[in-house]
What does this fold into?
Amino acid sequence: MDILLLIKAAIMGIVEGIAEFLPISSTGYLILSGDVLDFWTKNKRDLFIVFIQLGAILAVIYDYWGRLWNAFVGLLTGKAAGLENPRGLGIALIVATLPVMVVGFLLADFITSSLFHPLVVAAMLIIGALLIMYVEKNPKPAKYAEAENISLKTALLIGLCQCLALIPGMSRSGSTIIGALWLGTSRKAATEFSFFLGIPVIVGAALLDLLGKKDVLQTSEDWAVLGVGTLVSFVVALLCIRLMVAWVSKKDFMIFAWLRIATGVVVLLAYFVFGYQIQG
It folds into this structure.
């Protein structure tokens, strides 16, 4: 068993667990981290980067199990304790998921072949930062205090914002949270709706990628590496979810905007000065 490889997998899991729910692009940071660590072969790394996001989203399911189960029961039966509109959250999540499924299906090959480039990642990190700054400087009154109250129209628009996350470096959490804030949700509702919205998208992507590329995992060590990364991402994400909700109730996202800009500048310097090319 290659202990160094397992340590690298754990480091990647930490990066995923921290970055998944922050508006900074977990995929972008995983790609960059994988390159810095010289982690695994390309095919295995590609699968790893997609699949370990499942660990982070399982943390959401674990932490919000009661509300998610209530929404699921409400969707099926039209009855759920304490909800004025029992089917509201379930239908809103379905509506918000549809755009990224359609766009992702139509443009998957183009995104993989044309957009995994340092200049794209750097540009999207910086553009996303500017969007965060704009929305934070121009706040909208909150119409929706809780994720369960978000209207179908607003859910659809948040879903369209999520499509931006198909571009490497943009960030799924960033696109959905900032989009939701701009559309009039409270900070807490925007963050939690983004958490919930990640469940069908990330679970679906992880399982489909595993089914399509499982042949690249040829040994028990390969599966162990994938398992370590996923487990670490679950544990770290579980801690970050609670910290994130506590943060947004008191703070804004400006620190993450500056972090995105700093990272984008580093990627640009690495590209133009050292000829850096994305390997993952």
Remarks:
- The two ends are 23 Å apart (CA to CA).
- Residues 3-274 form one domain.
- The longest helix spans residues 220-248.
- The chain has one domain: 3-274.
